[in-house]
Amino acid sequence: MANSFGQLFRITTWGESHGGGVGVVVDGCPPKLKLTEADIQPDLDRRRPGQSKIVTPRKESDTVKILSGTFEGKTLGTPISMWVKNEDQRSEAYNEMASKFRPSHADYTYHAKFGIRAWPGGGRTSARETIGRVAAGAIAKKILKEQFGVEVLAYVSQVQKLTAEIDHERVTMKQIESNIVRCPDAKMAEKMIRLIEKMRSAGDSVGGIVEGVARGVPVGWGEPVFDRLEADLAKAMLSLPASKGFDIGSGFGGIALTGLQHNDAFRMKGGKVRTVTNRSGGIQGGISNGEPIYFRVAFKPVATVMHEQDTVDVTNKNTTLKGRGRHDPCVLPRAVPMVEAMTALVLVDHALRHKAQCG
Amino acid sequence: MANSFGQLFRITTWGESHGGGVGVVVDGCPPKLKLTEADIQPDLDRRRPGQSKIVTPRKESDTVKILSGTFEGKTLGTPISMWVKNEDQRSEAYNEMASKFRPSHADYTYHAKFGIRAWPGGGRTSARETIGRVAAGAIAKKILKEQFGVEVLAYVSQVQKLTAEIDHERVTMKQIESNIVRCPDAKMAEKMIRLIEKMRSAGDSVGGIVEGVARGVPVGWGEPVFDRLEADLAKAMLSLPASKGFDIGSGFGGIALTGLQHNDAFRMKGGKVRTVTNRSGGIQGGISNGEPIYFRVAFKPVATVMHEQDTVDVTNKNTTLKGRGRHDPCVLPRAVPMVEAMTALVLVDHALRHKAQCG
Amino acid sequence: MANSFGQLFRITTWGESHGGGVGVVVDGCPPKLKLTEADIQPDLDRRRPGQSKIVTPRKESDTVKILSGTFEGKTLGTPISMWVKNEDQRSEAYNEMASKFRPSHADYTYHAKFGIRAWPGGGRTSARETIGRVAAGAIAKKILKEQFGVEVLAYVSQVQKLTAEIDHERVTMKQIESNIVRCPDAKMAEKMIRLIEKMRSAGDSVGGIVEGVARGVPVGWGEPVFDRLEADLAKAMLSLPASKGFDIGSGFGGIALTGLQHNDAFRMKGGKVRTVTNRSGGIQGGISNGEPIYFRVAFKPVATVMHEQDTVDVTNKNTTLKGRGRHDPCVLPRAVPMVEAMTALVLVDHALRHKAQCG
Amino acid sequence: MANSFGQLFRITTWGESHGGGVGVVVDGCPPKLKLTEADIQPDLDRRRPGQSKIVTPRKESDTVKILSGTFEGKTLGTPISMWVKNEDQRSEAYNEMASKFRPSHADYTYHAKFGIRAWPGGGRTSARETIGRVAAGAIAKKILKEQFGVEVLAYVSQVQKLTAEIDHERVTMKQIESNIVRCPDAKMAEKMIRLIEKMRSAGDSVGGIVEGVARGVPVGWGEPVFDRLEADLAKAMLSLPASKGFDIGSGFGGIALTGLQHNDAFRMKGGKVRTVTNRSGGIQGGISNGEPIYFRVAFKPVATVMHEQDTVDVTNKNTTLKGRGRHDPCVLPRAVPMVEAMTALVLVDHALRHKAQCG
User: Which residue range(s) make up the domain with C251?
Assistant: First the structure.
């Protein structure tokens, strides 16, 4: 009972890996926004399996269809229902999953919680669930861009120990999309791609870090004390499959500094109150301060590996399981549009909430 | 409009640093729980300013009063209203704050968002707001302990660069409370205390890491896809003042491993499905798996320092501001009961949610 | 932004009269419930236009498809997405509606609120929206019956001035379904049918009353103070198109009595606390008391009539409009499954909520 | 777990009849609204027991104190906590209530639901709970008046069989407050007062109807499909103690008309789209249409009567109980400010929701 996200711009996702498809209902979208499938599909294509040699090869076109909420190419203010059919449903590849729990997957916990689980393809725990998020996020990004001048970006900054240094204030979507790993540092991207290919060959996987950025957010978004902007971003990111950590601004690294070193001094600049440094990450006291928002999300290495591993089965017996079928050596390139989507969903929700009370 | 937290065990906090006090209403508490102020006060005393030489010296007894929701020492199932009076209200110490924004505080963002702010003591942005959380958390901890056998603990594991190694599976409350910095590693605790005292003398401050642990959580708590247990924990922690990051299980550190290295193998042990390692941090697919839950929260160094800093005033002029009055060189010892409280609030809420759908 | 209903058993409906269809996502359904389309379709057939000579003739099979949330015929505990295609889309019949507001319809208010509206078939204001409710309600009724022994029924008790006297404690589904007006008083049903046919011939319409009953509800459901069981039922009923009033138990009629006359005395009966009379309508203080719950819902005469009426157009000019195309002389027979559905949705939600706090 | 009401202007009430008091936290109030206790107290005085000879004589000053959320007489945008102490706590008058269930009260259902109840004064089921609503409603009314030009009124239109005819478009607060029964028809008011006095002498009680009116509501408030304005009003009214029914506009009476007779024709008037009649009650399709909103709420006769009645006790034995102590012969005069408060709370919440999506 937690398949909805957002208070005023509220999405509800549904769907399992196998079955009638996956989708999302978006409630609360402002009316009269120009919207067709062409606004949604590009982000789904960035999330799609099989998009490059370094991601999972599942064959899915992931073609979105808007079933409601628009009329003559514009939003109505009523719920927008979007649907993507499931196509590549090879249950047989997963047969062993019916009786054995994949290590570090959600098979066991779903089985224990619900007493039943859709084992083909991981059912609801499949990353296909994020299709609904990315589709809804595309709408959120469009609203942010057109109505608030806010740009949301994400990119891969680290794969295992390969770390890129990216200037989050200047990085562009073009740079991010210039290579298949979505790391705007071209040289490091090449190394990352080689590492991921090596992992694919070894039947193993790697994790890393995706950084998210929002530029142009006006002062005032965020609802203390519990729905601080960074709190909602943290929740959004930790709700993504395989994510294990989140920090914002100086984050874990800020600990090394003293308060005097860490504080962001205020100065007037161009008639605006600005901070000289931005260790706060664009948010102070839970409310945006007009500086760029930037944060990091840690993703663990994908749990499915092509090796025999110890596990137990549904009858509580020790056994082993070897990953078969599709193998995703690195979730990061596809996590980029997911991070963007969740960021945009948080921001547009807060934009509307701010308007309601203080607008 | 975000002063409530939780779905079924729902708290609403209120109150500014100065004024009639601070408090909380707890809605959804199960009936017939034994409860008096004596169950609440100890955690408030752990959160209280002035409790030791290394925390802020504000003089407050922080005595809690239960105004409703109990009868003859037991909960009624109706809202529990708790109230703590404000006592030490030295507005004059903050006079300069009326017109100048403290760097890296929330003065500017509140001013910009609401067009008004209660500047004495920081108003709603004061850490006094967490009194309501800690009071409610004490109830949550009691329910977890008595009805579910779950123990929630937190402790300081790092102050600036001083890092303790704590075994989260075995650490005890007694060890944690054995020193004023709340680090169960006694030797490291001494160093930490010296560092904090040095900072106090220098009018500066340090941050660090609080680790949270929940032991005894049964399999099955957590509501994917958006209200994953780790997602709600992340939000809870990032909603605390001065927090900048969260990770769970292997967290940011897990990135160094490959999938094969990182996966937690399942094995039967004592008739139960257990994992051999616990890099998952007790949660898989957003649902508890029966292993200990452990996570880290990064806190930045407190922004109030006793030095002159650049800032701007409410008339948008550059100026400087020097911290005066009470100085908190390190928020960590007092953050420990806050982290415990928020952890307990998340867990009891999920316990009730799990019971509703799957009980 | 209000297309969801329920707290723990939460439905989200979507869809316009014309377009990709209408549907619903059900979140929070308990796992392991046997469920296929065959459990849903019968109630949709009872709601369907064209089912008899006295309802609107729109040609729709209203065939439901479950897209997610079940596996091998059982619920997973994940969101259940259900979809019904739109088939009979004769926009041309509505062309005049593009520029003129139908009196006592929602055309004008939608236009004014959103600045845009899907005029074909009334868009989101079409009664087709209730398909999602009825589909979700069928699941709710199944849970109530199988897991709680609760039976939910509704029937037509009044059409304009034709009033039937029905014993809500004994009326059966068979009696209700024995005639096309769904009034279990066979003689009165004949008169009602004749009246509705007369109205159809005259191009006019009539309203009336649907009574709802829930039998077997255990003591204890309902969440004071705001989510009293009768409050949520009232909201549920007033959210149905064309409804104008609700009362429960003695309702508006109870005003004629004094307190002494009106009170329901308690007596032990069969080892249970029972009330001798049931003017409370099965609810006291917002909580079910174990007696049958019964209430009335007033529906106005359908606004679409085949006569020329004064109205204004989208350019704010006075004009006239004559209803064309499909004409529904009486909404009551089709409102019966809607009332049942909403009743069941309220009850199953409260069943889960009660279990969470007091179970 | 249902002591909150509203989505964006959200109130949480707490408190029992006896104990530390009753109160409310208001979250989401716009900042910079002038607000002191003087804005709240007058409505509490209208709700207060002992205000006249025809209401319950409990001696309470019901003095409200604002504990948070304002600064220098203006709202901060943070939670407003308001508290009223309990004063007249004569538990002994209720001693028999500890072991016997009062007929048609909530004693039995609370006891059965929670397994515990605060029997003195009815605990949470006491009408004192509505103090929080009325206090919050006073703020809502102030916002509506000052920021939207909306006036909210309520009055008694019927006591048992004594029915007044009131023109809801023209009635004034002064007329309503000109007599103690709050019926603006002075002649009928006298009869009503005599009837209530007769009931008081007889130790009996009477119910009746309170009508609510909102004038000046702009076009566009209301959130279909579930949070239609009339649906939220219905819920609000049925959440009041002793209410049994709600209808809006033509309501139950509209059933007598055909669609052609019932429809509200649109005409331009003063440059605005207006309806010639207002059987819709100011709401069409769940959204306000600019006409006055008016509705009726049925209140049953108060259950406490000074006569011996059959009941059962907590040991499940048949017994009798005679009302003692304070006797409220008619709840209607005090229900008037409650109806106003709930109306205002619904409206201001919808005003903010409308602004968020369509503003």
Answer: 4-358
